[in-house]
Amino acid sequence: MYVHEYQAKALLAGRGIVVPAGRLAASARQAGDAYEALHHERAVVKAQIHAGGRGKAGGVLSVGSRSEAEAAAQRLLGSTLVTGQTGPRGRPVDKVLVEEQLDVARECYVGLCLDRSRGCPLAIASGRGGVEVEALAHAEPGAVIREWGNPFTGLLPFQARKLFAGLGLPRAHLAPAVKTLLALAGTFVDCDCSLIELNPLALCADGRLVAADVKMALDDNALSRHPELADLRDTAQEDPREVEAQRFDLSYVGMEGTVGCMVNGAGLAMATMDLIRLHGGEPANFLDVGGAATAEKVAAAFRILCQDARVRAILVNIFGGIVRCDLVAEGVMEAVKRSGLRVPLVVRLEGTNAAEGRAALAASGLEIASAPSLDEAAAMAVRMAKR
Questions:
Q1: Strand 259-263's sheet: what is its strand order?
Q2: Which of 5, 64, 199, 326 is the most exposed place for a label (fewest CB within 10 A)?
Q3: pLDDT, tens only, 337-346
Q4: What is the mean pLDDT of residues 299-305?
Q5: How far is CA 310 from CA 94, 254, 306, 307, 386, in A?
Q6: What is the third-level CATH fold of 239-386?
């Protein structure tokens, strides 16, 4: 679960990390009030969306007066910002952050993520902030310093000092830098984060070491331990189909293809998508209704698939182990009747009560194609999508 920049900065400030002075605004007038409250000659108005690359996309504007702050907010609020990380649909802007404009002398990069191969936090530091650290690490491996923290003790002081050496900052800033790095690592572990990036971590002309921009993602599987963090979720920044899927405990990820998929079981869903591609198609989504799918969940899954205008055909692939295929067929028929489905539908049922399920579909009078095998079902769905 991603959080907004202003939310991430509030969490870090509460742990002693220096962040720029700033205020949130949801209207042009509030942006003007925020500018005056800062008491700084120059400020920046920053669109708050769950994506990076805002500066290049025109989502960060420099202002020098109340009227300029209001005009910048008016320009951003209500717009859809498209960056290199949002995809072509972009993200809606309904809040802006008005901050002091920093006089930056040096920019550095500091990040923490989860190294799944080692099962521990990984801290990354570079003296080259404001760049794509992945590209930098590939082009100049020596420009990026890595330290692996213990999942129980976190990052230790000697490791923070090694990371400081990679930042290339003057030695006079050792103490504040180590304090910042340790606090950042503590936040990562305590809040069950999957990512924190300070890009840049700025050394200002006045000597402050400031988290100028922050990107933070939380492990949503751990939110039951952090109800106060769960409240930071902004569903307006998420795919509405994924939000709807979570209401019914469905695992859904939207993609860019034309063949909608509804499958029970994550492994079977992956195999189904592979077969769609093997036959020359592109899956429109990953959708796992679970091993104990009910007619209600199947109907909800259909509603979600039908919301995607790119879907040209739907493939339902159910292997009945715990779930009964006749109940799935019942949910499919009910969903087709309710949705007034306008795209071809292919259903493959196998396992518990599969014969009963196929018989019910055949007797329904609905335009539902049945396939005896997964390979044939995938090929059929791809052909229908192309037509």
A1: 251-254, 285-288, 259-263, 313-320, 345-351, 369-370
A2: 64
A3: 877 778 899 9
A4: 84
A5: 27, 11, 9, 9, 12
A6: Rossmann fold (3.40.50)
Q: Which residues are catalytic?
A: 109, 197
Cα 42–44–48 angle (5° rounding)?
165
In angstroms, the CA 261 to CA 58 distance is 36
Classify domain 1-20+103-237 by CATH number: 3.30.470.20
Cα 174 to Cα 17, 159, 163, 182, 208: the distances in Å are 14, 13, 10, 12, 12
CB atoms within 10 A of CB 172: 9
User: Nearest-CA neighbor of 39 among 22, 59, 26?
Assistant: 22
| pLDDT, tens only, 268-299 | 999 999 999 999 999 999 998 876 666 677 77
Per-residue DSSP letters for 62-94?
A: EESSHHHHHHHHHHHTT-EE--TTT-TT-EE--
54, 81 contact by CB (below 8 A): yes
Using alpha carbons, select from 115, 120, 50, 122 the residue that is nearest to residue 87.
50
The pTM assigned to this predicted structure is 0.79
Q: Per-domain residue ranges for the chain?
A: 1-20+103-237, 21-101, 239-386
How far is Cα 184 from Cα 189, in angstroms, rounded to an integer?
9
